[in-house]
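Re: beginner question about structure tokens

> Can someone show what the tokenized structure looks like for a real chain? I only ever see the sequence side.

Sure, here's an example I had lying around. Input first:
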Amino acid sequence: MPEISSWLSANLDTLITNAANHLAQRESLKSEVTDSIEAFFDGLVRTVSIQSPIPLNTILIDWVESSSAPFDVEMTSFAPVLTVLKQVTWDLILESLPLEDAVNLLVSLDQVFTDAFVYLARLEGDALITRMRRQLQQAEKRIEHLDRNKSNFIAVAAHELRTPLTLVEGYTSMIGTTEWYRVDTQAPVLVEGIYSGTRRLKEIINDLIDVSLLDLKLMEFHLQPVWLQQIVYSAERSVAKTASSRQITLEIDNQSIPSFSITGDPDRLLQAFQKILMNAVKYTPDGGTVRIQARELPGFADIMVIDNGIGIEPANLSLIFDPFSALGNSALHSSGKTKFKGGGPGLGLPIAKGIIEAHGGTVWAESDGYDEEKCPGSTFHIMIPLRPVQADIKVEA
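And the corresponding structure tokens:
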């Protein structure tokens, strides 16, 4: 049996020609394809001569790193090219040698090609992972850019809306001093309707600004002594009128709420509690109950807002804290904010979560599911760090 390297060297021209005929269908590619095939077989000869895969592996590395090769075939991998080169080699061995010598030569070369296939697969796998990682990084940068644009747009739009809204309020106030307002019996009703609409619009604008400030980490917090009992009572009083109009009972477990002071921004904490409590009222049917109770955990106070409302689907328990992710029929978004299942822009819970997280805490919800008939209810946990009282500090988050 001839030596492998000797046989390859003696038949190199034939191997190159046969392989080029298979891999170059177009004459315009013939020369370039031939150069690549010649480089491969040269690497193959050196690999079997020195019994090291390095020369052949170097050729495979060049193929993969270039992400293309001048072969006239459709492919997402170079494995088909390697298969053609192996088949051309096998065919010529069987044609030019006696059967016994051919079999021995094929067995010896088979291991070389097998190692080449394994190495090529690893190279292409690594290259695919690298390419996908690069594409993912580019996508993440694009998403970050879009998020910044969204936040900037919301902030600018909200601020721009304030000016015409202030004009509407001013002119409406001026109407209240006119003779027509005092004489016409319908005037007070009409003016109150304008006032009501502007108040609601102002709340939405303020929420848009708060979402932008939290997203951009620019919201200011003035830390000072805070009593959670006072925060809870103030939040309860702020929604009491709405709850009463729908015969919803508000209950507070006074004994469970910590009575000592902690550090926080009282105005922002009250805002967060109000929004979570109002959310509970909104999704509790008329005549239901919303209960506030607490428990002390190591380093935290867990304030729980518990309702017997319609509940939340498990898949939506995290989504409800995303901005503009109000669940349900979008046709309800124009309805009153306190109406049962009433719509809205979906900013209350995200703002509350952002405020609590800026204090070092967190907000999460649990529910047995969504059912408008059985009303399994929901529990919102407001985790507040029990940090010691410190002097007034202005921070941004």
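Each token stands for a local structural state, so reading them left to right follows the chain. The two ends are 79 Å apart (CA to CA).
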